[in-house]
Each structure stands twice: as C-alpha cells, then as structure tokens.
Amino acid sequence: MIINRIYSDYLMVSRLGEYKKLLIESLRLGYQHVSLIQYNDILNSGIFNKNVLYFIHRHDIDTDVRTAKKMFSIEKSLGIRSSYYFRLSTLDYCFMKEIDEYGSEASYHFEELSDYCKKYNIKSKEKALSNLDKIRLIFKRNIEVIEKESAIKIRSVAAHGDFVNRQLGVVNNVITDDFSLRNELGIDCEAYDSKLVDSFDLYISDKPHPIYFSPLSPFQALKSLNTKNTVICMTTHPRQWETNWVVNTKDNIFRAIEGARW
C-alpha cells in the first residue's frame, strides 16, 4: 500500500536500536558473527563445525550509505564482522577501505545484466542472454576498476535484484555462472551459490514496513537455539532500518523514470 511506503520512506522511527539489541542477544547466545567470505572460507577449509553457532551478516547497500555507516559503527562497538555489498551508484571507497581495514568485507552488489537491458531497451530473456558475453566483459571491467580505486581484493560478490530481472525472468547472477570468469577475477563465491545457501539452516531478509522480516523475525529464530538454527544468514538493507528522505526521494524518482523509459 502507498501509505506503508510513505511511512517506511519518510516517517518510520529509527530501528537501529532494535538492530543493536539483535546483535547483543545473538552474542549472548554464543553466535559467532562472520562475513560471507569468512563463512565461505570456513566451508571450504574443512574446519566447518556443526556445533558452532554461525550468524552470517550480509548488507546490500542499495541506496543509503549513511545508515550503512551507522550499522557498521554498531558492529564495531560489539566486535562483529559482516559483509557490505555496494552498487555502482553507492560506491564509497573511503568507507569501503574502513570496512576492509577493520576486518569486515566490502564488496560489489552487481547488476550489469539489468543495467544493460535498460540501456539498450532489451525486453526479452532470450535477447538478454544473447548479450551475456558483452555483459560479462562490462562486469569484469567494473570489478577491476573497483579493486583499483579501493585497493581491496574482491573475493565475493552479490547479485542485485531489479524490476527488469523480474520482468524478464532472468537474474543478474547468471553473469557469475561462468566459472572461468570467476577464476580469472579471483572471485571465490557469489552470495546465492547453492553450496552456501544449502548450508544455511535459516536465511532471513529484512522487508519494508509493516512486514520487516521474511520468513520470520531473527529474534524468533534465536529462540530456536540448539534445535535447528545453528547457521543463520541475514541480509539487511539500510533503507529498512532508518529513513533518509533525501536519498529515498531521489531513488523513488529515479526508479519511476527508469520504469517509464523501459
């Protein structure tokens, strides 16, 4: 409903206090907080222990870098590591370096396929896939630029979901289905790799008001400790935790224009 979107984008009280309480409660229960790439390394190293409680953090910085910085500050105060994935439109190299130097992960939230389809007005899955070689070359160049400007080695990436992907029925992470490209770029994993996802006992994503979480609240998940939720992965979007009316307004206008043009 429009009224819920208005509340979420402009009127919602900050939920960062709730975020801090969640982290504190998970630490109290004994969860080990790790970034996505740290968890991937644990899986591949053979030291994965099902008796260890893992809480994997993934932040998709779709729009709001300001709130992302606040979430990072909370995590630092608690000694927590996590992953931050930046779109081309939200790249902040100074912030990314700070994340990396702390020991968390700063990386890339990619969307070259949907961007290419919008740029060239491609409206069929078949035509989109026929341009995949060109799209992968753009992806490669973007990775190289980000690594050069940030001085950070990108080892994991996460696909962004766009309205174009939903319309075409093809996701951006088809780009990383090419493992020769991954090897060339030194990318160890993509956030939706089946080996990763299948190892999670529970995957939670935040949602706009009034839902907040899907499929359930992480607080509820923590109550299931020692029953099934020993490996929890949670994806958050800063926009869902605090309003930033300037950024939200710009993004809403931009998306409306994109939709009208495409």
Characterization of the model:
It is built from 13 helices and 9 strands. The chain has 262 residues and is α/β, with parallel strands linked by helices. It has a single domain (2-6, 16-261), classed as TIM Barrel. It is globular, with a radius of gyration of 18 Å. It starts with a helix and ends with a helix.
- Give the helix level as a range of percent: 40-55%
Specify the number of helices: 13
Contiguous runs where pLDDT drops below 50 for at least 5 residues: none
* Alpha-beta content class: alpha/beta
Instruction: Specify the CATH homologous superfamily.
Output: Glycoside hydrolase/deacetylase
* Rg: 18 Å
- What is the straight-line distance between the termini? 23 Å
State the total count of DSSP E strands.
9
CATH fold description: TIM Barrel
Summarize the structure.
By secondary structure, this protein is an alpha/beta fold.
Q: What labels would you give this structure?
A:
single chain; 262 residues; alpha/beta; TIM Barrel; 9-stranded mixed sheet; 49% helix
Topology overview:
Layout (H helix, E strand, L loop, with lengths): L1 H10 L4 H13 L3 E3 L1 H10 L8 E8 L3 H14 L4 E4 L6 H10 L2 E6 L1 H8 L5 H6 L1 H19 L5 E4 L3 H6 L10 H7 L3 E2 L3 H4 L4 E5 L6 E2 L3 H5 L8 E6 L8 H17 L1
Parallel strand pairs: 1-2, 2-3, 2-9, 3-4, 4-5, 5-6, 7-9
Antiparallel strand pairs: 7-8
Helix pairs in contact: 2-4
